[in-house]
TrEMBL record:
Signal peptide start and end residues: none
InterPro entries, per the entry: MmgE/PrpD_sf (IPR036148), MmgE/PrpD_sf_1 (IPR042183), MmgE/PrpD_sf_2 (IPR042188), MmgE_PrpD (IPR005656), MmgE_PrpD_C (IPR045337), MmgE_PrpD_N (IPR045336)
MmgE/PrpD N-terminal domain ranges (all copies): 7-247
Domain MmgE/PrpD C-terminal: 267-431
Descriptive protein name: MmgE/PrpD family protein
Family: Belongs to the PrpD family.
SUPFAM superfamilies noted in UniProt: 2-methylcitrate dehydratase PrpD
Amino acid sequence: MEAPVTRELAEWTVGLTGSDIPETVRAEGVRTFVNWLGCAVGGSSHETVDRALAAVRPFSGEKRAQIIARDVRLDELHAALVNGISSHVLDYDDTHLKTIIHPAGPVASAILAVAESRNVSGADFLTALVTGVEVECRIGNSVYPDHYDRGWHITGTAGVFGAAAATGRLLGLDARQMTWAYGIAATQSSGFREMFGTMCKSFHPGRAAQNGAMAAFLAAAGFDSSERAIEAPRGFANVMSTKQDYTEILGGLGKTWEAALNSYKPFACGIVIHPTIDGCQQLREKLGDRVRSIRSVALRTHPLVLELTGKRTPSTGLEGKFSVYHAAATALLRGDGSPTAFTDEIVRDGEIIALRDKVTAEADGTVHEDAVHIRVTFEDGSTTDLHVEHAIGSLSRPLSDTEISRKFSRQSEPVLGESPTAALLEAAWALESLDDVSALARLSAASN
């Protein structure tokens, strides 16, 4: 008989109190939320969100939840879906580097929508957020990397558990109901890496948010499921991975915190490209006009870079986020790694394409995931080399609160304007002291 992993995790989830979470972890939870909200505002005007809204609005129930930065309200489940899409569509969101899960998308998108009709305090919201992030990352740890290597998009597959955990806390589920919620979440776990570079990639965290919240609502109504959904022979871990390490789920639970290991992207693309952008931006500063006389750029990277971002000839902005060649060219010519580096127009720019075609990349298993070696050769045959040991945004070089705020403002101001952005940012950093977190959702739409 397998260890009762699902049940034990459920008991911990419902038994946790806010005071059980160390202050450092709660502080990281606030950073996670601020970063998520900025990304959701920044992505709110993307055509992917337009199309999602056009598809789902006719099916919305009672309109009780705000679509971030839009003059639109939907029912809680559809709002969770759309806000999850919005928060991830720019590929600018948070990353749990051990698993490449983007934790906040499924969790925050679910619980902000659910909280709007329930008068949830900021402190309770933060506890639910940290709990959900912890659950999804631990479940992700238990099956990574085999699960990811098989082609599953782990943000979708593990994120549904995080959304169920966090929503279940807001609904006050007991241990048995939470066990059912995990089972209902498990049977909805999905998302394929094949979808990277398409609108479906951001659909994954949105759907995980929606499905996880639905799992909690069903469980609250007495809708049952297997109580061994994670560990059973035909359950989540055994069906979806060749690796099952349940100590990653239960070991040190409540003592060590995966939620404290979250990181925040300085660049709006797949995180494995970040060392290359970091290095190419440094080279641009060093080289000045000499970037116009480059004959070739040779990258030596971690193997995952080419596996995930090896698109040689991207044709859309979304595809460009998965092209290390495009990212290198744009960083060298424009010094850009923000969302403006990954538009359809920039991906199709002739000057960018010309330099992109001069970039080569070699996979090297000795290169760390947050490192890169770059050699630039010029038309006169001279060369310059750069080694990035740890990219900005990694755990070794994390973004500061000030940098997260700057990132938030750069995304939000073009959408909301300067004053509404300042008010929303101030309220987001004050999350734990808010009497009712629904004020944040309303603030995000105040200028529309």
